[in-house]
Amino acid sequence: MNMAIDEAMIIAGHEGRIPPTVRFYNWLPGTLSVGYFQKAEKEVDFDAIERHGLGFVRRPTGGRAVLHDREVTYTLTLPETYPGLPAYVQEGYRMLSEGLLYGFRRLGLDAEMTGGYEQAAGDGLHAARQIRSAACFDSPARYELTVEGRKIAGSAQMRSRGIVLQHGSIPVDPQTELLFELLRFPESRSKERWKRIVEEKAVAINEALRAKNGREVTLPEAEEAFRLGFEEALGVPLVAEPLSEYEEELAAELVRTKYGTDAWNRSR
Protein backbone atom coordinates (compact mmCIF):
# COMPACT_ATOMS: atom_id res chain seq x y z
CA MET A 1 0.00 0.00 0.00
CA ASN A 2 2.79 2.46 0.80
CA MET A 3 4.41 2.05 -2.63
CA ALA A 4 0.97 2.17 -4.28
CA ILE A 5 0.20 5.48 -2.55
CA ASP A 6 3.51 6.90 -3.75
CA GLU A 7 2.66 6.03 -7.36
CA ALA A 8 -0.87 7.36 -6.91
CA MET A 9 0.66 10.68 -5.84
CA ILE A 10 2.59 10.81 -9.13
CA ILE A 11 -0.56 10.17 -11.17
CA ALA A 12 -2.67 12.64 -9.19
CA GLY A 13 0.08 15.26 -9.42
CA HIS A 14 0.40 14.76 -13.18
CA GLU A 15 -3.35 15.27 -13.56
CA GLY A 16 -3.24 18.45 -11.48
CA ARG A 17 -5.45 16.98 -8.75
CA ILE A 18 -3.03 17.56 -5.86
CA PRO A 19 -0.42 20.21 -5.01
CA PRO A 20 3.25 19.45 -4.34
CA THR A 21 3.16 17.06 -1.40
CA VAL A 22 5.37 15.82 1.44
CA ARG A 23 4.15 12.57 2.95
CA PHE A 24 5.41 10.93 6.16
CA TYR A 25 4.50 7.35 6.94
CA ASN A 26 5.35 4.15 8.81
CA TRP A 27 5.00 0.44 8.01
CA LEU A 28 2.81 -2.22 9.62
CA PRO A 29 4.14 -4.84 9.65
CA GLY A 30 7.78 -3.93 9.16
CA THR A 31 8.65 -4.47 5.50
CA LEU A 32 11.68 -5.25 3.37
CA SER A 33 11.68 -3.26 0.14
CA VAL A 34 14.03 -3.90 -2.76
CA GLY A 35 15.03 -1.57 -5.56
CA TYR A 36 13.43 -1.77 -9.00
CA PHE A 37 16.41 -3.59 -10.57
CA GLN A 38 17.28 -6.01 -7.75
CA LYS A 39 17.04 -9.77 -8.29
CA ALA A 40 14.75 -10.60 -5.40
CA GLU A 41 14.80 -14.40 -5.73
CA LYS A 42 18.60 -14.36 -5.66
CA GLU A 43 19.15 -11.76 -2.94
CA VAL A 44 16.19 -12.14 -0.52
CA ASP A 45 15.49 -14.97 1.96
CA PHE A 46 11.69 -15.20 1.73
CA ASP A 47 11.53 -17.94 4.38
CA ALA A 48 13.15 -15.52 6.84
CA ILE A 49 10.67 -12.78 5.92
CA GLU A 50 7.77 -15.14 6.62
CA ARG A 51 9.38 -16.42 9.83
CA HIS A 52 9.65 -12.86 11.19
CA GLY A 53 6.14 -11.88 10.07
CA LEU A 54 7.41 -9.09 7.80
CA GLY A 55 6.16 -7.68 4.53
CA PHE A 56 7.96 -7.52 1.18
CA VAL A 57 7.59 -5.12 -1.75
CA ARG A 58 9.53 -3.91 -4.78
CA ARG A 59 9.95 -0.14 -5.04
CA PRO A 60 9.43 1.73 -8.33
CA THR A 61 12.76 3.48 -7.66
CA GLY A 62 16.29 2.10 -7.81
CA GLY A 63 18.68 1.31 -5.00
CA ARG A 64 19.04 -1.73 -2.79
CA ALA A 65 17.26 -3.50 0.04
CA VAL A 66 15.89 -1.48 2.97
CA LEU A 67 14.17 -2.79 6.10
CA HIS A 68 11.40 -0.33 6.96
CA ASP A 69 10.89 -0.66 10.70
CA ARG A 70 11.41 1.86 13.51
CA GLU A 71 11.99 4.61 10.99
CA VAL A 72 10.46 7.75 9.50
CA THR A 73 9.73 7.22 5.83
CA TYR A 74 9.03 10.22 3.61
CA THR A 75 7.85 10.87 0.06
CA LEU A 76 8.06 14.20 -1.75
CA THR A 77 6.30 14.82 -5.07
CA LEU A 78 6.33 18.00 -7.12
CA PRO A 79 6.28 19.01 -10.81
CA GLU A 80 9.54 19.07 -12.76
CA THR A 81 8.66 22.73 -13.44
CA TYR A 82 8.64 23.58 -9.71
CA PRO A 83 10.42 26.96 -9.24
CA GLY A 84 14.11 26.51 -8.52
CA LEU A 85 14.18 22.73 -9.09
CA PRO A 86 17.28 21.86 -11.16
CA ALA A 87 16.73 19.92 -14.38
CA TYR A 88 19.54 17.48 -13.57
CA VAL A 89 18.56 14.58 -11.31
CA GLN A 90 21.63 14.77 -9.07
CA GLU A 91 21.27 18.50 -8.44
CA GLY A 92 17.54 18.07 -7.88
CA TYR A 93 18.36 15.34 -5.39
CA ARG A 94 20.65 17.74 -3.54
CA MET A 95 17.96 20.42 -3.37
CA LEU A 96 15.20 18.09 -2.18
CA SER A 97 17.48 16.45 0.40
CA GLU A 98 18.08 19.77 2.14
CA GLY A 99 14.84 19.23 4.08
CA LEU A 100 16.42 16.12 5.61
CA LEU A 101 19.58 18.05 6.43
CA TYR A 102 17.63 20.72 8.31
CA GLY A 103 15.56 18.03 10.04
CA PHE A 104 18.62 16.26 11.40
CA ARG A 105 20.02 19.53 12.66
CA ARG A 106 16.74 20.29 14.43
CA LEU A 107 17.20 16.98 16.26
CA GLY A 108 20.62 18.18 17.41
CA LEU A 109 22.75 16.15 14.99
CA ASP A 110 25.65 17.64 13.03
CA ALA A 111 24.49 16.22 9.70
CA GLU A 112 26.33 16.91 6.46
CA MET A 113 25.59 16.27 2.80
CA THR A 114 28.20 14.17 1.03
CA GLY A 115 29.80 15.25 -2.21
CA GLY A 116 30.44 11.68 -3.37
CA TYR A 117 32.23 8.51 -2.35
CA GLU A 118 35.68 10.01 -2.09
CA GLN A 119 34.59 12.73 0.31
CA ALA A 120 33.05 10.20 2.71
CA ALA A 121 35.71 7.52 2.29
CA GLY A 122 37.11 5.69 5.28
CA ASP A 123 39.46 2.76 5.72
CA GLY A 124 36.84 0.13 4.96
CA LEU A 125 35.11 1.83 2.03
CA HIS A 126 37.36 0.78 -0.84
CA ALA A 127 35.79 -2.68 -1.02
CA ALA A 128 32.34 -1.17 -0.85
CA ARG A 129 33.12 0.90 -3.94
CA GLN A 130 34.11 -2.18 -5.89
CA ILE A 131 31.39 -4.69 -4.95
CA ARG A 132 28.34 -3.40 -3.15
CA SER A 133 26.06 -5.49 -0.99
CA ALA A 134 22.32 -6.05 -1.39
CA ALA A 135 21.73 -3.67 1.55
CA CYS A 136 21.09 0.03 1.03
CA PHE A 137 23.04 1.46 3.95
CA ASP A 138 26.48 0.02 3.19
CA SER A 139 27.90 3.42 2.14
CA PRO A 140 26.81 6.98 1.36
CA ALA A 141 26.26 8.05 -2.24
CA ARG A 142 26.49 11.52 -3.71
CA TYR A 143 24.39 14.12 -1.87
CA GLU A 144 23.30 11.72 0.87
CA LEU A 145 23.22 12.63 4.54
CA THR A 146 25.88 11.59 7.03
CA VAL A 147 26.69 12.15 10.69
CA GLU A 148 30.41 11.95 11.45
CA GLY A 149 30.92 10.20 8.13
CA ARG A 150 28.23 7.55 8.70
CA LYS A 151 25.19 7.35 6.44
CA ILE A 152 21.99 8.26 8.31
CA ALA A 153 19.35 8.29 5.55
CA GLY A 154 18.76 6.47 2.28
CA SER A 155 16.77 8.08 -0.53
CA ALA A 156 15.90 7.44 -4.16
CA GLN A 157 14.35 9.57 -6.88
CA MET A 158 12.38 9.00 -10.06
CA ARG A 159 10.78 11.28 -12.64
CA SER A 160 7.59 10.19 -14.38
CA ARG A 161 4.74 12.02 -16.13
CA GLY A 162 6.41 15.35 -15.48
CA ILE A 163 6.47 14.69 -11.72
CA VAL A 164 9.53 14.24 -9.50
CA LEU A 165 9.16 11.70 -6.72
CA GLN A 166 11.80 11.34 -4.03
CA HIS A 167 11.28 8.97 -1.14
CA GLY A 168 13.53 7.62 1.54
CA SER A 169 14.19 5.84 4.79
CA ILE A 170 15.32 7.61 7.98
CA PRO A 171 16.12 4.96 10.65
CA VAL A 172 15.32 6.04 14.20
CA ASP A 173 16.63 2.82 15.76
CA PRO A 174 19.10 0.34 14.19
CA GLN A 175 17.77 -2.76 12.41
CA THR A 176 21.00 -4.10 10.89
CA GLU A 177 20.91 -7.50 12.59
CA LEU A 178 17.41 -8.27 11.34
CA LEU A 179 18.08 -6.83 7.88
CA PHE A 180 20.95 -9.24 7.30
CA GLU A 181 18.82 -12.19 8.37
CA LEU A 182 16.58 -11.37 5.41
CA LEU A 183 19.30 -11.24 2.74
CA ARG A 184 21.06 -14.05 0.90
CA PHE A 185 24.84 -14.13 0.54
CA PRO A 186 27.07 -16.68 -1.20
CA GLU A 187 28.71 -17.63 2.09
CA SER A 188 28.42 -16.81 5.80
CA ARG A 189 31.78 -15.01 5.84
CA SER A 190 30.55 -12.68 3.12
CA LYS A 191 27.39 -11.90 5.11
CA GLU A 192 29.36 -11.15 8.29
CA ARG A 193 31.80 -8.94 6.38
CA TRP A 194 29.02 -6.87 4.82
CA LYS A 195 27.17 -6.61 8.11
CA ARG A 196 30.29 -5.15 9.74
CA ILE A 197 30.63 -2.66 6.87
CA VAL A 198 27.03 -1.49 7.30
CA GLU A 199 27.43 -1.21 11.09
CA GLU A 200 30.58 0.87 10.58
CA LYS A 201 29.27 3.03 7.74
CA ALA A 202 25.65 3.64 8.81
CA VAL A 203 23.98 4.98 11.94
CA ALA A 204 20.41 5.47 13.19
CA ILE A 205 19.16 8.70 14.78
CA ASN A 206 19.02 7.40 18.34
CA GLU A 207 22.43 5.75 18.04
CA ALA A 208 23.93 9.09 17.03
CA LEU A 209 22.02 11.01 19.72
CA ARG A 210 23.02 8.60 22.50
CA ALA A 211 26.64 8.90 21.49
CA LYS A 212 26.43 12.70 21.45
CA ASN A 213 24.38 13.55 24.54
CA GLY A 214 22.68 10.42 25.85
CA ARG A 215 19.17 11.36 24.67
CA GLU A 216 16.69 9.66 22.36
CA VAL A 217 13.67 10.76 20.33
CA THR A 218 10.37 9.10 19.51
CA LEU A 219 9.10 8.49 15.99
CA PRO A 220 6.60 11.41 16.24
CA GLU A 221 9.36 13.75 17.47
CA ALA A 222 11.58 12.75 14.56
CA GLU A 223 8.75 13.18 12.05
CA GLU A 224 7.99 16.67 13.35
CA ALA A 225 11.65 17.69 12.99
CA PHE A 226 11.65 16.66 9.32
CA ARG A 227 8.32 18.36 8.67
CA LEU A 228 9.85 21.60 9.90
CA GLY A 229 13.03 20.82 7.97
CA PHE A 230 11.16 20.56 4.68
CA GLU A 231 9.30 23.79 5.42
CA GLU A 232 12.63 25.51 5.96
CA ALA A 233 14.27 24.01 2.86
CA LEU A 234 11.35 24.65 0.50
CA GLY A 235 10.45 28.03 1.99
CA VAL A 236 6.75 27.21 2.25
CA PRO A 237 4.41 26.17 5.07
CA LEU A 238 3.15 22.58 4.95
CA VAL A 239 -0.60 22.20 5.44
CA ALA A 240 -1.71 18.86 6.93
CA GLU A 241 -4.30 17.07 4.78
CA PRO A 242 -5.40 13.43 4.38
CA LEU A 243 -5.01 11.58 1.10
CA SER A 244 -7.68 12.52 -1.40
CA GLU A 245 -10.40 10.00 -2.23
CA TYR A 246 -8.91 9.78 -5.73
CA GLU A 247 -5.46 8.88 -4.38
CA GLU A 248 -6.96 6.23 -2.10
CA GLU A 249 -8.88 4.66 -5.01
CA LEU A 250 -5.82 4.69 -7.25
CA ALA A 251 -3.66 3.16 -4.52
CA ALA A 252 -6.14 0.36 -3.88
CA GLU A 253 -6.18 -0.48 -7.59
CA LEU A 254 -2.35 -0.39 -7.76
CA VAL A 255 -2.15 -2.80 -4.81
CA ARG A 256 -4.53 -5.18 -6.60
CA THR A 257 -2.81 -5.03 -9.98
CA LYS A 258 0.83 -4.31 -9.13
CA TYR A 259 2.36 -3.87 -5.68
CA GLY A 260 0.38 -6.68 -4.07
CA THR A 261 1.34 -9.24 -6.74
CA ASP A 262 4.24 -11.68 -7.07
CA ALA A 263 4.41 -10.71 -10.75
CA TRP A 264 5.66 -7.27 -9.70
CA ASN A 265 7.44 -7.98 -6.41
CA ARG A 266 9.41 -11.04 -7.59
CA SER A 267 9.67 -10.09 -11.25
CA ARG A 268 13.49 -9.95 -11.45
Write a brief structural summary.
It contains twelve helices and ten strands. The protein has 268 residues and is of the alpha+beta class.
Written overview of the protein:
It is built from twelve helices and ten strands. It has 268 residues and is an alpha+beta fold. The strands form three sheets. A four-stranded antiparallel β-sheet has the order 1-5-10-9, with helices on both faces. A three-stranded mixed β-sheet has the order 3-2-4. It has a three-stranded antiparallel β-sheet with strand order 6-7-8.
Radius of gyration: 18 Å
* Overall mean pLDDT: 89
**Topology as H/E string?**
HEEHHEEEHEHHEEEEHHHHHH
Q: Helix count?
A: 12
Strand content: 15-25%
Low-confidence stretches: 116-131
Shape: globular
Q: Share of helix among residues? A: 40-55%
Number of strand segments: 10
Task: Trace the largest sheet across and list its strands.
Answer: 1-5-10-9
The largest sheet, given as strand count, sense and whether it forms a barrel, is: 4 strands, antiparallel
State the secondary-structure class. Answer: alpha+beta
Distance between the ends: 20 Å
Features of this protein?
12 helices; 18% strand; 10 strands; three-stranded mixed beta sheet; alpha+beta; four-stranded antiparallel beta sheet; single chain; 268 residues
Topology:
Blueprint: H1 2-14, E1 21-25, E2 31-34, H2 40-43, H3 46-51, E3 55-58, E4 66-68, E5 71-79, H4 89-106, E6 111-113, H5 117-120, H6 125-130, E7 145-147, E8 150-151, E9 154-160, E10 163-171, H7 176-181, H8 188-201, H9 205-213, H10 219-234, H11 245-259, H12 262-265
